Amino acid sequence: MRYLRAKRPDPTRLIEEKIETAKEIFIIWGDDLRQDPEIAPLLSPYVKAIEASNQAMEEAGTFHECYVCTVIDGKGCCKIGLENECTVLILLLNLLLGQKFPEEREVPGRCFFVGPRGCKILARPMLCRDYFCLRHLNMLSDKEMAHITQVLNDELTLLHRLTSLMRQRLEEWTGKFLLEYDLTGY
């Protein structure tokens, strides 16, 4: 077993590279993106959509269930490597929204963005927002699940629209030079 672990690379370096790339892009084009006539009006509605999604999930008890599963039962879905579902564009969107990133992995064996009280970033990949494990599916009524799905749809639609617009602008400004904005993997 030790041999297999030694061969499995630590995915931390990949997310650190993505964060550095997002920060570099933000320094150069952050103000332009934030003031873009199509992007700017979507930022506040996106934050409100995240808040609505969080409220729906809180009311349904999913956040508490994640806490029980992860902290008490020692399981949980936000494992090491999952952070690399974050694209450079999603990281850049977090910077546009004033978010800061952790300097290092706070919870060993967990996603880089997981802190003692849950996720530490605002804009998250679709997988992180729209995944419901069997434990959640068994605890939620069909009505609760339908409500959460409808609310999440607004958030995820805005996330897609924002990252698509950001990608378009950056490709225009760089002459389509940087094509790794949507890189995922671990």
Tell me what you see in this structure.
By secondary structure, the protein is an all-alpha fold. The protein is globular. It contains 8 helices and 2 strands; from the N terminus they run αααααββααα. A hairpin with a 2-residue loop joins strand 1 and strand 2 (118-119). It has one domain. The chain has a two-stranded antiparallel sheet with strand order 1-2. The model has no long low-confidence stretch (mean pLDDT 88). Helix 2 crosses helix 5 and helix 3 (40-60) runs antiparallel to helix 8.
Radius of gyration: 17 Å
Task: Please give the share of residues in helix.
Answer: 55-70%
What is the spatial order of strands in the main beta sheet? 1-2
| CA-based shape | globular
Give the SSE string.
Answer: HHHHHEEHHH
Would you tell me the overall average pLDDT?
88
Summing up helix and strand content along with how strands pair, one would put the structural category as: mainly alpha
Number of domains: 1
The fraction of residues assigned to DSSP E strands is under 5%
Low-confidence stretches: none
Number of strand segments: 2
Number of helices: 8
Whole-Å distance between the termini? 20 Å
The major sheet is characterized as:
2 strands, antiparallel
Provide the descriptors you would attach to this structure in a database record.
globular, 8 helices, mainly alpha, two-stranded antiparallel ribbon, 186 residues, single chain
